[in-house]
Structure formats: C-alpha cells, structure tokens
Amino acid sequence: MSGDSFDNALAETVNGYYKAELIRGPTRDGPWKTVEDVELATLGWVHWHNQQRLHGYLGNRPPAEYERTFYAAHWDDQQPVGIP
Fold it and tell me: What start-end ranges are recorded for coiled-coil regions in this protein (predicted)?
C-alpha cells in the first residue's frame, strides 16, 4: 500500500529538525559512544523542542511560556469548584 507525500508530513518535519539541530547541528554533543548516549541526547532535544525553543507561531516565545501565559489569562479569575 502506498500513500501520498503528505501522509507523514508532520513526523518528517520533526525528524528533519532533529537531524539538523541535534545530529548535524553545530552544537551537537556527538559522536556518541553508546545507544544510551544517543537516547539521553534525544531526550534533552525533545525537552528543548517542546519547552524552550522559540516558536514563530507563538510570537517567538517558547511553548512552555506561551502555555503559562495562556492559562493565566483565561483561568486566573475563576474560583475553584469544591464543597463549601
């Protein structure tokens, strides 16, 4: 079964970022000596990618900062629901 070029577009984009930034980038930590070294480097990159990188769609803010700002703006004035 064959698909079109858009089947895995998002995954291929993230894989491209991974290769360009971690594997081939100027700040890479390699060469890695063990599989565990690659796993730890990958975990660090995933954390950076999801929490700290500047994202143009979010106004050049890191995703974690954008999320905190979003929730503070939308739920800061609401009272918790509970038993009185």
Answer: none
Is residue 44 domain-resident? yes
Residue 56 belongs to domain spanning: 34-76
Single out the residue of 4, 67, 16 nearest to residue 45, CA to CA. 16
pTM: 0.60
Tell whether omega for the bond before 31 is within 30 degrees of 0, i.e. cis: yes
Q: Residue 50 domain-assigned?
A: yes
pLDDT digits (tens, 9 = 90+) for 9-45: 877 888 888 888 777 766 666 677 888 888 888 888 8
Q: How is the chain classified by DSSP, letter by letter? A: ----TTTTHHHHHHHHHHIIIIISSTT-----SSHHHHHHHHHHHHHIIIIIS-BGGGTSB-HHHHHHHHHHHHHTTPPPP---
